[in-house]
């Protein structure tokens, strides 16, 4: 079966990250939603995820 030949459709939504900086550290929080729908069967689903990316400056990690 080729991709797109199914009755099941999905939509992926990834939002802009929110970045919080505190001295030599930073964290980026990004929300993501996946929505699935099968119009033929009349069913759907959705899932939510949150990604966290953390950084430390090279000098804070003991590297220069």
Instruction: List the domain count as a whole number.
Output: 1
Number of helices: 0
Supply Rg: 19 Å
Q: What best-fitting shape do the alpha-carbon axes yield? A: rod-shaped
| Order of secondary-structure elements | EEEE
The fraction of residues in strands falls at over 45%
Helix share, percent: under 10%
Distance between the termini: 53 Å
Number-wise, the strands total 4
Largest sheet: 4 strands, antiparallel
Structural category: mainly beta
Walk me through this protein's architecture.
With 64 residues, the protein is an all-beta fold. The radius of gyration is 19 Å and the shape is rod-shaped. Helix content is 0%, strand content 62%. The relative contact order is 0.27. The protein has one domain. The chain has strands spanning 8-14, 18-22, 25-38, 43-56. The protein contains no helices and four strands. Strands 1, 2, 3 and 4 form a four-stranded antiparallel beta sheet that branches.
């Amino acid at each position: 079966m080729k991709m797109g030949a199914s009755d099941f459709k999905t939509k992926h939504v990834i939002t802009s990250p929110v970045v919080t900086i505190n001295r030599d550290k930073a964290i980026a929080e990004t929300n993501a939603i996946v929505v699935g729908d099968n119009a033929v069967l009349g069913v759907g689903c959705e899932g939510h995820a949150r990604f966290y990316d953390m950084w430390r400056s090279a000098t804070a990690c003991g590297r220069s």
